[in-house]
Specification:
2 domains, 9 strands
């Protein structure tokens, strides 16, 4: 049963259902109206004074009459989805530090406290036998040291890191580019894994229940993968890889960057090897990460 302590939660969710508002829009609404409850009951002309653009205001005009904030919260409770807003004390502290942090986080799972020692692990969907061997080795030792493993539920390295964490009896967080409800999980091949994660960790998204995995959602997802943890480990990533976008986000967020070196003739090693050239910490064992983060295995 969900316990929504913040009375503003239902209005955060309601505005998030409208779309187009985003973290900057939420900030403008809060600055102008002081509370989202005030914003929800405001006249449509007041939104231009808050600094919202015409297309966003038009969406509010069209969709607001069709949304009942209380009913929408009941839907979340029915699907066992919790909601954290940026105003809540349990909002992840590290995530709050990034540029334009998500105003809302939807969480489905057993892990209620997100702020725990953690590491994000990312890599290519098309992993090699090298990545298949290295990922569980490193992940298992990190879990044994007490770290929560964060990744994005994608095929390949992401899925393998989640699986290794679960096998080691650890906790893992999957950040999604879709809704966290069962019908929205992407990719479909990892739906069973997602349910395992929900029982031993958490599924997290800034997107409302029912949101499809649209391409434009994943760069936003990546910044959360990077933002939740003090560091990120890249395991196998070709030149054009979403994992490198996540590493770039982590760098901009002043996070520690770790990389597994690879064979110089392998396309999957180009990304990590280049990161190491640019100053990322070379990792050959979990202890390299733990020492850098001032933890002991």
């Amino acid at each position: 049963m969900n316990k929504f302590i913040n009375p503003q939660s239902k209005y955060f969710n309601a505005f998030n259902l409208i779309g187009l508002i985003g973290p900057i829009g939420f900030k403008k609404l809060l600055a102008h109206f002081k509370s989202l409850e005030n914003a929800w009951s405001a006249g449509i002309n007041e939104f231009s004074q808050a600094g919202l653009n015409k297309s966003t205001i038009e969406q509010i005009r069209k969709q607001r009459p069709q949304i009942n904030p209380d009913w929408e919260m009941e839907k979340l409770a029915k699907h066992q989805i919790n909601l954290i807003t940026i105003q809540d004390k349990n909002y992840p502290k590290l995530l709050k530090e990034i540029y334009a942090p998500p105003a809302v986080l939807y969480i489905r799972g057993a892990l209620q406290k997100i702020d725990q020692p953690s590491l994000s692990i990312v890599g290519t969907r098309r992993l090699s036998s090298y990545g298949r061997q290295i990922t569980p080795l490193i992940t298992t030792d990190l879990v044994k040291a007490g770290l929560v493993i964060i990744s994005g539920l994608a095929k390949g390295i992401d899925a393998l890191a989640h699986q290794a964490a679960l096998k080691a009896k650890g906790q893992t967080i999957a950040v999604l580019g879709s809704g966290v409800d069962k019908s929205s999980i992407y990719p479909a091949v990892n739906k069973s894994l997602a349910e395992q994660i929900s029982q031993n960790g958490a599924l997290i998204s800034e997107f409302p229940m029912g949101t499809a995995p649209l391409a434009q959602n994943f760069p936003q997802r990546n910044r959360i993968v990077a933002g939740l943890s003090p560091g990120i480990l890249v395991i196998e990533a070709p030149v054009r890889s979403g994992a490198l976008i996540t590493a770039k986000d982590a760098l901009e967020q002043n996070r520690e960057i770790f990389a597994i070196p690879g064979h110089i003739l392998s396309q999957n090693s180009i990304g990590p090897n280049n990161l190491i050239k640019m100053g990322a910490k070379l990792v050959s064992q979990a202890n390299d990460i733990l020492q850098e983060l001032n933890l002991n295995i």
